[in-house]
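Question (not urgent): is this output format expected?
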Amino acid sequence: MTERKHKWDPASRRAWISAGAPILALVLVVAVLFFALIANFAQRQDRAFAEDSSHLVESVIRSRGEALARLTLDYAMWDEAYENITLDYNEAWLGENYYSAVADGLVLLRADGSHRYDWQMEGLEDGDVLLAAAIAASRSDFPLPAGDSANSDDLITYSVISQDGRLALLAVAAVSQETAFDRRTRGDTPVDYLAIVDVLDESEIAELGATLNLDDLAFTTGAAPRDHLALPLQTPSERVVGALTWVNEKPGSATFALQFWPIMLGLTFIGVLAAFVARRLVTSHTTITARAESALESSRLRAEFIATMSHELRTPLNAIIGYTELIQDQIGAPHDAVAMRNDTNRILGAAKHLRQLVTDILDHARIDAGRLALNVEAMPVEGLLEEIAEISESLAMAQNNVVSIVDPGKGLEVMADDVRVRQILINLVGNAIKFTKNGDIEISARLEHSGEAIEFVVRDTGIGIAPDELARLFQPFVQANADIQRQFGGTGLGLSISQKLARAMGGAIGATSTPGKGSTFTLTLPRARPEQRQAA
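Got this back:
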């Protein structure tokens, strides 16, 4: 029974590393970035709520203090009040005029702190204590305003105070004439001060919180409760009297908390989907890799088999050729010699043809298996074409063709394997002769236009090749068409092997052709540089 392949074998691990891991890592990065983006947005929302609510509460308290200051200034900067308080104190007039429907208490005092008159709202608890605190605060936390200033803003000041845990707003103004001229001419007249108090009790602060849409708005003189925001309240001398606190709603965090599980479910779904896709890709990648490795192994085994069998076939073929040549040498009587020589020629021709086929297959197998050994060195071009023409002469004569050398490449040197260059040129010239009858084959060697390569050109006047057939001419086991294969034979390996040999030496083979007029094949190989020639 075949052992089951472990899921974490090397191939699977490589597939996960190359395909699965990057996908999962990308999903993880996107999820983390998305989560961080949402969390950052929630934090910014929380900070915005804290800042906006603090500014809102501060603005309301400041506006209420400024309103109280304007009210105090209206009561204090009044000629009639100045006459009935400072110049000729009239307590009856005070009782009829010094009260307020909006303030919680009034007190008249001198710079030394002595009381002259006070009034408080009905129902105000511990009014005397609170008013006394107002007097004390007015003297200790900020200087009393001047009574002779031409600028009305200098006649008033306001602050916050705290007494027995209660918050109050306090405004103090100097009792003075209405006109700036009169104020400047008051001389040494003693200054009376009017202090007005606006008490903010718990219910009023809570109502203010409801108006501002702030939960649990309250005044405290201690530390702010947990999860609450605080706005410290200071006097002009920067003494903290307490703080207004309210619930820190953290709207961003609250929204994030509400959406946390839907977000997590969405990210989980994406993660599962990504894992599924990654697994499918890994499985596909593993399968493709296994098939590719199997195909490569099969190709390698096939190439080794072909190479081995080619060697095995060459041995008896060489023996057949050797014995046939020996028989030809030993033929005796002329009468028997003609018939026997014809028979041995047929045997010899068939054997040589078969050996060439085996050689082609062996070369093809070696190249595909990567076992082709080349000895590339600088070699002279001159004399090479003459040798090729001489080798091909008998075959050309059989086709009634003429092989001529147009340019022998005198003085040129090429970087190539001597044996393989001859093999390529013999193949090109042999093909030109085979597909040409009663025609011309021209061979030439010349310097390529860039000066970096040598071009070997084989031109014939044969049958030519159609454009669509020319495109697949260098594929292994392929000939121009079936009719040519039946008429001229061959395996279709010659040009494929020649192209691969040329590329292995840093060159290439190209072809152009016109059906019915002939073909031109060009072998391009690197030119030998001076230092390469010296090394050779």
